[in-house]
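Worked example

This section walks through a single chain of length 254. The input is the sequence exactly as stored; nothing has been trimmed or padded.
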Amino acid sequence: MSVRRNRGISSTQTTLEILQVVRRLESAGVTEIANELGVAKSTVHRHLTTLLEDQYLVREGDAYELSFRFLSLGEYVRTRNARFRTAERKVHHLAERTGERCQFIVEEHGYAVYIHVAMGDRAVRTDSALGKRVPMNAVSAGKAILSRLPDEQLRDILDRRGLPARTPNTITDESALLEDLQRTRERGFALNDEESTLGLRAISVPATDLHGNVIGAFGVSGPTHRFRGDRFREELPDLLLGAVNEFELDIQHQ
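Given that input, the structure is written out below as C-alpha cells.
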C-alpha cells in the first residue's frame, strides 16, 4: 500500500499514484488499485474514467494499462534540447567502440536518471531502463555528477535522499562517499565496483557546459570479468574522457 503524502492537490496526487500503480502492476483493475492505495473504489473509478477519456490509459476488459501517449511525452523530455540529442549520438558511438552497454545519465530531484542507453554487441542487459531513477551514490554516473556539483547542491541531495544501499558494496557512509568524490575529481572519472549490481562494474565521466555547470554523465558498464585491470582503470576511462571532451566542444556551438 502506498504512503499518502500531505502536500499538493490531493486529487492530482491520487491520479499520479494510480498511474504509478498501473505502471508497476502493468495491468490493473479498479479493485486492485483501490486496495493498493487504500482509497474508495468509486474514487479510483472516477480517476480512471478521466485518464481513459484523455487517452492516458487503455482498457482491456476490466483492466487498465498505460497508453502510448506517454511515449511521446517521454521522447520529448529525452530529446528536448540539442545537448541531449548530441548526447544520444555520442552514447551510440561509444557502444559501437566498446561493444558494451553505454548510457547518459542526468540528475533530477536528487536521483540519477537514465535518458539514453545503447547496447554494444557484447553488452549485458540490466534493469537500468530508460527513465529509471536510482540512488546517486550507487552508480558511477551519479557519483560523477555529484563530484561536480556545488557544495550546497551536493549537501541538499545527501540530506534529501540519504545513501541507500543497492548491494553490500554500495557506499553508504558519508565520509567514505566524500572521499570517493574527491578521488573522482582528481582523476576525472568515477568507478562503480559492483555497487549497483553484483557482478557489474562501470565507469562514468561528468560532462559540463562552458560555465562549469554539470549537464550529466556518460558511462560504460559491463561484467566484472571484462571490466578489470588496465581496461577498467585506464583504457575505458581514457576513451570516455576523450568522448566527453568531444561532446563538450560540440555543444559550445549549439
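What to look for: Residues 229-251 form the longest helix (23 residues).
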